[in-house]
Amino acid sequence: MYDGVKAMIAAEKKLGGGGVAPAAVSSEPVQCGAHLKTPDQITGVPVWPAGTKSLVSKYVTPERFNKFQGKKDKAGVSFE
Question: What does the pLDDT look like over 26-37, one tens digit per residue?
Fold first, then answer.
């Protein structure tokens, strides 16, 4: 599976990305939930509804989000 993901990333880079440019990150919090259709709609610090049990909601604090926003891993995947 890992090799397949790497191959897909390489193919996308070869095609010039082929995606939509991510929206600018703002300081306004963004309410997370099913109404968001793409990750690009998270343009600020994510805020989860009360009662959310997701580990992402537990560990992605505003401090961590601000620390890693705009950064990418070795494969070019952004934190947002």
Answer: 668 888 888 888
